[in-house]
Design goal:
Layout: H1 3-9, E1 16-18, H2 28-32, E2 38-43, E3 46-51, H3 62-66, E4 72-74
Antiparallel strand pairs: 1-4, 2-3
The chain binds iron/sulfur cluster (2 copies).
Length: about 80
């Protein structure tokens, strides 16, 4: 897997994609996800959600419904 694919894999699963721009690091999406697909980036002041185990995503979209900032969307 090339670096672009690796970066992409942190931001999307087969079912959903994350735009971390407006993420306020409330972690509500992580709490909502039944499959522990989501994880945290906490690095030099950057705090936002990422995909930590995309293969486990079942497409339930609980994360999409839970995010108060609209950062997570169903793939088209
Ligand atoms: S769609 Fe469901 S399983 Fe996939 S990341 Fe969101 S909450 Fe988790
Ligand atoms: S629920 Fe939304 S704002 Fe909160 S951590 Fe998840 S993506 Fe970020």
């Amino acid at each position: 897997m090339g670096i672009i694919d690796r970066i992409r894999a942190r931001m999307r699963t087969k079912f959903i994609n994350i735009n971390p721009h407006n993420c306020v690091a409330c972690w509500k999406c992580m709490e909502a996800c039944p499959k522990n697909v989501l994880g945290k980036i906490e690095f030099l002041g950057h705090r936002h959600v990422r995909i930590s185990n995309g293969a486990a995503c079942i497409g339930c979209k609980k994360c999409v419904r839970t995010c108060p900032e609209g950062c997570i969307r169903a793939n088209e």
